[in-house]
Amino acid sequence: MLISVQALRALAAWMVVGHHFMQLFFDFEAHNALEYVLADKGGIGVDIFFVISGLVIFLASADKALTPWRFMLMRVARIAPAYWFYTLLLAVLVLAVPSMFPEVRLELSHVLLSMLFVPAQNPGGFGIYPLLDVGWTLNFEMLFYVLFACALLVHRDYRLGVVAVLLYLVCGLIGPAFDLAGGFYRDDIVIEFLMGIGIGMLYRRGLCRAKPWLPLLGIMVALAAIYHGADVPRALEWGVPSALLVISCVTLEPYFKGSQVLKMLGDCSYSVYLIHVLVLVAGRWVVERTGLDPYAVLAVCIVLILVGGYGSYQWLEKGTYRTLKRWWGIEGPEIISRQKY
Question: What is the pLDDT of residue 328?
Fold first, then answer.
């Protein structure tokens, strides 16, 4: 695993944490520059995740003789157990402490659809979201996995084109024609997976090399583009800068090597992503009942998310992944990436 990618995964996860802190505690009302960045730009963490997902899945499968079925089993074994666990945990918490989750409405059919990664209207009335609302990104991830699994039937040099065609068919033609999942898959954010695959192809060919000043310039240009924004589709406004960040950091990989801290933070990023809303909602509940300073509560939340994310990765993610691989008879090289998201 590239340490530079791990660092970006961690950054992306914590940007989303900050974004949801501003949403849950301040309803996105910013009072200073940092709060503005988190409230207005923190959501780009998802776009970075999607680009990284395309990159890592391409690199992890490039030299392995994977059948589509085996690939999908490994992806489900890696992604689903932790997501299912925290979805069910949320359901239990809603039943046990309903005042903590006033916006959440439980319906068995919706819970089941959520766990099957099928986009559906949330009973709370705020759009097409699963019970654990951050799981909306996993619905896109699973679509990407299915399409990439089909692309495994061709040589790796043609996989970008195959996935692009399949995404166009599903999201551009079939989805709109049949109003698939209420239009959920029409979002142009899916193009960011293709950007990641493209970066993976460049990396495989040894083209992600340059003097340090060039990727550093790329990072500055990407950050400036993100900050100023533009009235264009999301794949252009945030996807292109995210791709520039990813390729710039990959180019700087020699300067990241050996950092176990960054590797650990990247490893924990998926669990951080799944856990953080539950912790922040509990923190908001405490603030509402005690009047404590939100930032003092945030400090406690950060510690809980860090510790919980680390424990979740070590014992839940890794443990279930290895167990399911053994049960399903798919022992072999691991493909571990964030997904995000």
Answer: 85
